[in-house]
Amino acid sequence: MNDTYYMQLALKEARKAAEIGEAPIGAVIVHKDNVIAKAYNFREVEQITASHAEMIAIEKANREVGSWRLEECTLYITLEPCPMCAGTIVQARIPRVVFGAYDPKAGCAGSIINLLQQPQFNHQAEVVGGVLQKDCGDILRSFFKGIRERKKN
């Protein structure tokens, strides 16, 4: 399996979010070539700030491996992590993060700041950005365009 394959799985999760009116962001966590957690944004439905795809997937993966440490995992996410999610990734000790679309407004894996590779922290992650970037960006642009059009009408 490769990064493109797993990002396609994350995109499937993002589409599930879009179907229920959530921002179409999906996440997949892989441990030793096995998908151990999948999730999508659920913030609007739950009205809970931390209901981002990454946060939900990390919690599921913690339960699956029986530890708060996800040291042998890769997180695939369709949008560059925000500050909250980047902090949780660092705390979970995830060694590798692969994301699709860059987020110039809130991205903390290189766009605004790179919290995942701060040498001052006791953990840093390898970061790979731009995997299926166009597909990941297109689903977000389409979703927010639809919201703007509904607001106009």
From TrEMBL:
EC number per UniProt: 3.5.4.33
InterPro entries with a match to the protein in the record: APOBEC/CMP_deaminase_Zn-bd, CMP_dCMP_dom, Cytidine_deaminase-like, MafB19-deam, tRNA_aden_deaminase
A Gene Ontology biological process term: tRNA wobble adenosine to inosine editing
Top EC group: hydrolase
Catalytic activity: adenosine(34) in tRNA + H2O + H(+) = inosine(34) in tRNA + NH4(+)
Function: Catalyzes the deamination of adenosine to inosine at the wobble position 34 of tRNA(Arg2).
Subunit (UniProt): Homodimer.
Homology family: Belongs to the cytidine and deoxycytidylate deaminase family. ADAT2 subfamily.
Name of the protein described by the UniProt record: tRNA-specific adenosine deaminase
Organism: Radiobacillus deserti
Gene: tadA
